[in-house]
Amino acid sequence: MILTKLSLKNFKKYKNFEIDFYDGLTGIIGKNGSGKSTVFEAILFALYGELKSKGSKELVKNVRANSKDELIVLLEFEFDNLDYKVVREFRGKNLNAIAKLYKNNELIVNGAKDVTRYIINMTKMTKDAFLNTLFASQKELTSLSSLDNEHRKKMIRKLLGLEKIDQIEKFLKESISDLNKEIKSFSSFLLNIEQVDEYETHIKSYQESLKILKEKINLREEQKQKLIDEEKSIKEQLIRFEKIKEQKNDYQNKIKLYESKLESTIKNINELQTQKTQLEAKKEEYKIKKIVKNEYEKIVNNLKQQDDLKEKYLKKIGLIKERDELRLAYKKQKDEIKFLEEEIVNVNSVQLEQKELKDKIKLYQKQLQDKKIDERELRDKIAGEQNLIKDTKSKIQTIQSLGKNSKCPTCTRELLDDYDKVLNSLYELIEKTYEKNIYIYESKLEELNKRIEIKQDEYDKTVLKEKDIHSKLNILNERKKDLLKSKSYLNDIETRGKGNNEAIEKLQEYVYDKKLHEDMIEKFQNLKVEYEYLISLEAQLQGENKLLISLKEAVKEKESLVLKISQLKNDEKEILYDENTHILLKKNLDETLRKKDDLTELLYNKKLQESKINGEINSINNRLKENEEQKIKLQVKIEDLNDYTKLKLSMAEFKTNINSKIAPKISQIASIMYSKITKGKYQFIEVSNDFDFYIYDDGKKYPIERFSGGEVDLANLVLRIAISKTLMELNGSSQIGFLAFDEVFGSQDETRRLEILEAFHTIKEQYRQIFLISHETEIKEMFERLIEV
């Protein structure tokens, strides 16, 4: 893989950024916080969709970008002589991930996860492998020698991907320990031979007792069955007696029922005969008073005519009153219409004036919004400069607290004579750059706020004026609605007036005599009481035929009931029932049930005893069965323990073989580079199988801690490059053609820096691109190519 181009939009601190990559040794130079390391974070993000440390998606997007602005990272690279382009985007408020991969300008993969999967398969490197192989920092280089043995070995094994073997080995150790505990636990629960023999003796004893108990239960079961048969026979006899008794009681109940009906029928006959006598007297009275009915009906008809005349007369009076009211309303409505028509003459000119004011308000709103955006941008710039001042003052305090012998917080180089120079440059940066920028931004902000205040005043006045016009227009529109209602009401008055005159004309011929009407009402009230009594007599006389029929039917029912009662009494005497025999049978049944219940309880106790014995036998058998199962499980655990022990030995041997191949490879690559950097002073760097480092001096090997800081830094550098080279061979990633190192010059002097650069030149044949990141601007001329950020 060879990098060719990187484009960023709204990625971390970059709003818009583009960079081209070329072959050779390239320096990426810039001040602290300028975004040097962000370049390679963007490369990692483009390939794998993640940063070096996982975190919130919101931290990836530029803080000055709006929620609608897109985040875009575009990386172009060459792989296996083919041109590739990968694009990663975050869109929308939810920062939805979008990714596309092109090969020779043709889209081949779409989707964030699919693109990542394709790149891993193509490069044969995961994100962690990519980081460990191609990127190294000053902190990582220093850790190779500064960490204690255990942590240094752990870090190198992680870089080489060997921690997985360590994890497997740890898993095997833990599994063997757990199995030993489980085997010990299983063994403690197993029965010994004496316990097994004792359990088997108990089973034999229980089985003999069970045999005797079953014989007793069978005998009791036979006795119980005899009682059940006896109970059945008695119950059958009792059922027959109950049916006879029920039949006799049924006849007796029917006789009582019919006797009760006969008594009611006789009483009913007597009442009907009394009613017949009373009805004959009322019939004579009706013949005398029948004439009242004709007089009453005649007076009712006359009253109806008078009521109709009165209704028409009153309606005519009401219509005349309504006519007068309509005439007054007509005149009032004509005056109202004239007044409203004069009020709404200017409505069109008011509407035009309102439209002009609304257009003016929209213009002022847009101008105010643009100025407030400018204000917010100026405040953000001031805040940014203030943060830079705060960070710079913090660095000054740190350097002052450490003194002249302190190391640069960025490159770890001792300051010494540069102490005052560094402090002065930081103070100058605050005064001539940050504070000056703040003064310029604040002046612009003050002037902008004045313009905003003027424009806001114009806007407020226009809004108030538009509100007044709006209120006036609402009133005029209401007047228009009132005018339409008034005209409609006037038409309604005219229509009603016409109808009113026609109705009065039709009612002129009707004449009403109030005195005549009142005399008729008085005569009606006098006849009404006699008429209502006569009507009640008619109603009573209409039931005469019904009364005679009811009397005839009652006499007939009486004769029928007498005959039925006589027949039922004869039938009841023929039913034979012996109550004493019935009572004796019930006593015999109770005695039989008592005996059966006693025997049932005895059988229950015997079967309960039988169940307990069977439970004891089952419990012993289950314990013996469980013991056998435990034996089988114990054997399985023992076999697993043997297997894990063999695996542990094999893994230890495999680990030794792997280490014996990797360590010499790292030693070989590192020794060649270190010899060249030190001009042959140190010929060999040895990496043991446990990843301890030794440097040979005059044919003798010494631990790396023995040597000076500069020599150790150089040794760390070549060891890290050797580890990267070995990693690439392990991963089978022969197509990766670049390396990147962050702040690797550390505390080296100018001579040593040149030696480090020479070391990188020695591996140019293996890596077409080498990128070195540094904040030290004085080394710019040492690179073949330079990128300043």
TrEMBL record:
Coiled coil location: 196-289, 323-381, 431-465, 610-644
Keywords for this protein: Coiled coil
Residue ranges annotated for the RecF/RecN/SMC N-terminal domain, each copy included: 3-122
UniProt keyword annotation of Cell division present: no
Pfam name, any one: SMC_N
Keyword Transit peptide: no
Protein name according to UniProt: Chromosome segregation protein SMC
